[in-house]
Amino acid sequence: MQIKNDLLLRVIKGEKVDRTPVWLMRQAGRILPEYRAVRNSVSGFIELAKTPELAAEVTIQPVDILGVDAAIIFSDILVVPEAMGLPYEMVEKRGPWFPKTIADASDLKKIRIADIEELSYVLEAIKITKKALNGRVPLIGFAGAPWTIFAYMVEGSGSKTFSKARAMLYRNPALSHKLLEMITASTIKYLKAQVGAGANLVQIFDSWAGILPPYHYREFSLKYIEKICNALTEAPVTVFAKGAFFALEEIGQLNCDTVGLDWNMDVDTSRQLVGTDKALQGNLDPAVLYASEKEIVHYTHQMLNQFKGSRHIANLGHGVYPDIDPEKVKLFVKTVQGISATSKD
Ligand SMILES: Cc1c2[nH]c(c1CCC(=O)O)Cc1[nH]c(c(CCC(=O)O)c1C)Cc1[nH]c(c(CCC(=O)O)c1C)Cc1[nH]c(c(C)c1CCC(=O)O)C2
């Protein structure tokens, strides 16, 4: 189907656009009272994510309410470990928790490469969303990067240090690689299935990239992201590796189309490291949205000026924080959309 607002896809292709497209990581979620109302109608996050009609509804909410230039399918990166045989729970105010984790070689026997049948609820949600969007904006599919998924499967929950997962890289690199191979194979199947169901592009979230030293990042993360990028020939791929400024040059050499930047990354230096043949996405400090309206406009303009409208997709440098006022998000979106990309050259 023809996409009416295809700004995002055109920026990715390197085409000239009249203005910079904008969306927000974690836009489908708790910032909107409309989301909380739908979530409160079911037992919790997991049931919502597994009910395709409702997942589609909350995917479209930010397009209707915030006016963003793309939708991102409502799901979570942790559906992949679940489909591999490690179910998770979402504990109120604490985040994800895995009753079973991977600690040694015997645990690997209990898991498998994900069966896509087990993720059919996500694919169904994508199909319903596409129909309901009716080509208004592109739909983004996503998955976690293998290293970030590994970190949850080994640690069993969120952590400041992910020390169990980091210890495994040193103590048992062979087992680590086996698990990363299984996650990578699962992720490739899953992302291809998302594109098959209608996702126009996909994003890989490497949320815990920044806790690894460069030598481990290269060996245990980048190598697997590279495999995914090489396998995903059907749709554009965005790589967002939070905190991996040290690896930007190598990320720039991946077979991907867009590189996401967090707010610690200097825009000019990032552009030099990544090169000019990829789009850049980001990178307003998410905490700017706690500031006054005047400051939000100021910092948004500053960010747009730094990217100079050249192959830029505006976003925050990480997911929007749950306690941000949706009116502030709307102001950010409107500010980006009110500015001509080319006038900034
Ligand atoms: C690390 C990670 C996770 N999930 C995700 C990441 C990578 C991005 C990042 O670094 O933030 C990605 C994700 N999670 C969710 C989406 C939906 C699409 C979107 O709007 O971006 C996306 C893209 C829904 C969600 N995933 C989660 C919620 C909140 C659940 C609820 O209370 O409704 C939502 C809407 C829960 C979740 N899921 C995860 C955590 C750590 C938590 C708890 C903390 C938190 O809420 O941010 C794992």
TrEMBL record:
<feature type="binding site">
    <location>
        <begin position="26"/>
        <end position="30"/>
    </location>
    <ligand>
        <name>substrate</name>
    </ligand>
</feature>
<dbReference type="InterPro" id="IPR000257">
    <property type="entry name" value="Uroporphyrinogen_deCOase"/>
</dbReference>
<dbReference type="GO" id="GO:0004853">
    <property type="term" value="F:uroporphyrinogen decarboxylase activity"/>
</dbReference>
<comment type="pathway">
    <text>Porphyrin-containing compound metabolism; protoporphyrin-IX biosynthesis; coproporphyrinogen-III from 5-aminolevulinate: step 4/4.</text>
</comment>
<dbReference type="InterPro" id="IPR038071">
    <property type="entry name" value="UROD/MetE-like_sf"/>
</dbReference>
<comment type="similarity">
    <text>Belongs to the uroporphyrinogen decarboxylase family.</text>
</comment>
<feature type="domain" description="Uroporphyrinogen decarboxylase (URO-D)">
    <location>
        <begin position="140"/>
        <end position="156"/>
    </location>
</feature>
<comment type="function">
    <text>Catalyzes the decarboxylation of four acetate groups of uroporphyrinogen-III to yield coproporphyrinogen-III.</text>
</comment>
<feature type="binding site">
    <location>
        <position position="318"/>
    </location>
    <ligand>
        <name>substrate</name>
    </ligand>
</feature>
<keyword id="KW-0210">Decarboxylase</keyword>
<protein>
    <recommendedName>
        <fullName>Uroporphyrinogen decarboxylase</fullName>
        <ecNumber>4.1.1.37</ecNumber>
    </recommendedName>
</protein>
<dbReference type="InterPro" id="IPR006361">
    <property type="entry name" value="Uroporphyrinogen_deCO2ase_HemE"/>
</dbReference>
<feature type="binding site">
    <location>
        <position position="152"/>
    </location>
    <ligand>
        <name>substrate</name>
    </ligand>
</feature>
<feature type="binding site">
    <location>
        <position position="207"/>
    </location>
    <ligand>
        <name>substrate</name>
    </ligand>
</feature>
<feature type="site" description="Transition state stabilizer">
    <location>
        <position position="76"/>
    </location>
</feature>
<dbReference type="Pfam" id="PF01208">
    <property type="entry name" value="URO-D"/>
</dbReference>
<keyword id="KW-0963">Cytoplasm</keyword>
<keyword id="KW-0456">Lyase</keyword>
<feature type="domain" description="Uroporphyrinogen decarboxylase (URO-D)">
    <location>
        <begin position="21"/>
        <end position="30"/>
    </location>
</feature>
<feature type="binding site">
    <location>
        <position position="76"/>
    </location>
    <ligand>
        <name>substrate</name>
    </ligand>
</feature>
<keyword id="KW-0627">Porphyrin biosynthesis</keyword>
<comment type="subunit">
    <text>Homodimer.</text>
</comment>
